[in-house]
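[audit] Reproducing an earlier prediction to check determinism. Same input, same settings, fresh worker. If the tokens differ from the archived copy the diff job will pick it up downstream; this log only records the rerun itself.
[audit] input (543 residues):
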Amino acid sequence: MARKIHFSRLLDFLSGSALAGASTKVQRGALNRDFDFAKLESKKLRELIDANLPTFYIVDANLIAKELTDGLGFSNFVENQEYVNLKFPSKKELHIFLLNIVISTLDGIPKKSFLQTIDSLNKEYIVLLNTLTEAKTYAKYRNASTRFAFKMRSILKSSGVYVANDSSKIVSNFKPNSYAIIAPTFNSAVEYVNTRLNDNIRKAFSQSYDLTLKAFNSKADSKNRFTIGDFINAGHTAAYTAKNELIGVNMPFAQEKQFQLSGDPKAEGLETELGPLYLESDYAIKFDQNFVENATNMLNMQFSFTVSMPAKYNTATLRTQEVARIRSYIADTVLPTIQEQAKNKFVGGIVQDILLDTGASPNAREFIESAIRSSLKGESVESIKKRSTANKKDNKLFATTAIFKNPKKLNIKTKSGGTKIKGIKLSTSISAPQISNLTNLLNILSAQLVNRVRQNMGTGDRSDILNYRTGRFAESVRVERLTQGREGMITAYYTYMKYPYATFSEGGRQEFPRSRDPKLLISKSIREIMQEQMVTRMRAQLI
């Protein structure tokens, strides 16, 4: 079951889809830079997948009604128990009541033909495959994948969230009172369905029985209201043929591991290990034999296949078994460990040329071999070449300087256009030879800087410093190189996302208060990391 789209293209798909989902030019520019320098240790891959890749979601109205009937009790209503006893319907009556609400709600979602949608997507997919066949460089391969994801999201976005009116022709194990929801993203599908079910179920109880539903557990919203997510989840599942032949599995945790295993046969074998879980539990989607090729293409396009599942089963039993099988399967594979080290050790985080033998330099095989060889010898590893997509006007490097030699007061000058740091006073003296290799220090800075910037930002509505909200600013900060002068002075050259954050710098529209200048925050974070690496006892003091 070979994949035509390499798993290493996952971030390229995410990037293109995210750009298509952006509604303004500013958002598109920011997302482009965010994904170009994405780091898996700071961006949760599951959240990126759920927010940007499409889904095929089968909603089972019978199952929802059953779980609600079995789960709802007197404690779910605001009124006192005596009043609830008087009004509460019998179990049979309650099931019929809830089933009608769920069906009428799902019937109210727009209906369209998925066969037409998949036909449009397949045309773009064929163009992608042809382009990849002709691509000779990593950049062309990457750009083609990103463009395809952009077009795919655009096609699905124009259709919106809808019910496939031809789903019974596509899915062979389609159950009565089921609906196939097609959406540009997993998040949009779940939100669209759940919001409508929540509102209609609350309203129906109020109007028919004069009862007010309240929250069941911690998933409640801010108003402590009932939510369908307490009872039913959209659980990721496997795709099978009508003959019980596995087509594939797209679930975020598995996709992350397949991405890390890119180029290794284990990437594909992981699906074979997971697939039986869903078939045995009767939650797999079985596609009609005539639709198998389309279903395979959907997997290659990174569609998620999801079905309605009891919340307790999905979050406890199934998730535990999924994690156990994945971890057991990859336990004897060295590649994820090497790549995890690489993400933390190398400039830019992600191994950008992950495909084996793409023609880029160095390719993944050379990269991994170098990492293993250097680790065994205890040597540093040369950083990989990194392609920058920043605009020319954003290429200006800023410099921050620290001296680790003499404890006397200093007046340190910085490079032109850089950030002035008036001085650092050390409690101990360090000679220049004691300073560790600059390459190692650069790797350490690259691995720790994003988190340190985040830690030094405000956590709420502070007006004197920048506040951490989306993480976009912190994740854009990057140290490009380090230099060391004769007196032991180390200068760090760094960049960050100038637009829109340069507005807080000197000369920007929002330059006051000056304490919000991004360069001050970044310089402080760099100094702290460098200090921790140089001495165990040190304090910084402005002079």
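[audit] rerun output stored. Observation attached for the diff report: The radius of gyration is 27 Å.
[audit] end
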